[in-house]
Amino acid sequence: MSSTVGLGVPVPKMLPVAGTWTLPFTAYLLLLGTRVMYRRVKTEKYIGDAGDDKPDAKGKKIDPLALDSRCHANFVENVPLAFVLVAIAELNGGNRTVLNYAMATLFAFRIAHVELGLRSGDQALGVGRPLGFFGTQGFLAGMAAYGTWLVKGYWGY
After folding, report:
1. Which helix (H) or strand (E) holds 138?
2. How many of the other CB atoms lie within 10 Å of CB of 58?
3. What is the chain's pLDDT, residue by residue, as a tens digit (157 residues)?
4. DSSP 59
5. Which of 49, 114, 122, 138 is the most exposed place for a label (fewest CB within 10 A)?
């Protein structure tokens, strides 16, 4: 599980878990970004979030461009920190099976947040929205705690 650099010096693969999950997360990010661009072209609104309207739970209008923009932004706000936390845990000897399952769970939470939550109907209040939000928050808190636990010996505990 190593590759060679320069004159044949073997270098181990340092972050195989984080590397494994870059493709699915990036593919979904590209889908979210493409939806925003499609909506911008369709509505001819190239700056800002103004687009077509549809009613929300209180009779107000949900702007589809703003909705797609928030789906994309919510992903971008959470996933990079998740990758940093997983990389820290992995570099400090975290169990790779646990980390893989955790990343799979986070991927499911992020998809649920958008597809079963924000985009699930006219009101953007599907069950996936709280599931994705609280699941992601739990992931971030849990992974931060796991990373801290892995280095507890550094602090003398």
Report:
1. helix 128-150
2. 6
3. 666 666 777 767 889 999 999 999 999 999 999 999 999 999 888 887 755 555 555 666 788 899 999 999 999 999 999 999 999 999 999 999 999 999 999 999 999 999 999 998 767 888 999 999 999 999 999 999 999 999 999 988 7
4. S
5. 122
